[in-house]
Amino acid sequence: MSPTRKVLVAEDSSVIINLTKNVLMFENYQITAVKNGKQVLEKLAKEDFDLILMDINMPEMDGIECTKAIRALEDPKKSTVPIIAITGNYKNYTLDDFMKAGLNDYVQKPLDYDYLLATVKKYLV
């Protein structure tokens, strides 16, 4: 059996956190959830994750700013972790904006959980 993969979910909506946790835990992923980009950086400083689901619009530090900070980290394992954007206003950003920030992929809100799971699995093979 393969090792449990650790996913960090950065999302300020408790409803989306709970739904995402339920979908991903069904696949035996270990889920940690935080509410903003500053908390992402704090968690990442203490432990490693296999993937980050990053809401773009969060208080204190948004997903774009947080992703840029992660990509600038000196630890190569942490700075290259796959990051998937979760966004409801993707029209404010182009795919090119996401790629320039260092995001690997994105999933639109309202979330299609089959698509979310497929996107997560693409990076956790």
From TrEMBL:
<protein>
    <submittedName>
        <fullName>Response regulator</fullName>
    </submittedName>
</protein>
<feature type="domain" description="Response regulatory">
    <location>
        <begin position="6"/>
        <end position="124"/>
    </location>
</feature>
<keyword id="KW-0902">Two-component regulatory system</keyword>
<dbReference type="Pfam" id="PF00072">
    <property type="entry name" value="Response_reg"/>
</dbReference>
<dbReference type="InterPro" id="IPR011006">
    <property type="entry name" value="CheY-like_superfamily"/>
</dbReference>
<feature type="modified residue" description="4-aspartylphosphate">
    <location>
        <position position="55"/>
    </location>
</feature>
<keyword id="KW-0597">Phosphoprotein</keyword>
<dbReference type="InterPro" id="IPR001789">
    <property type="entry name" value="Sig_transdc_resp-reg_receiver"/>
</dbReference>
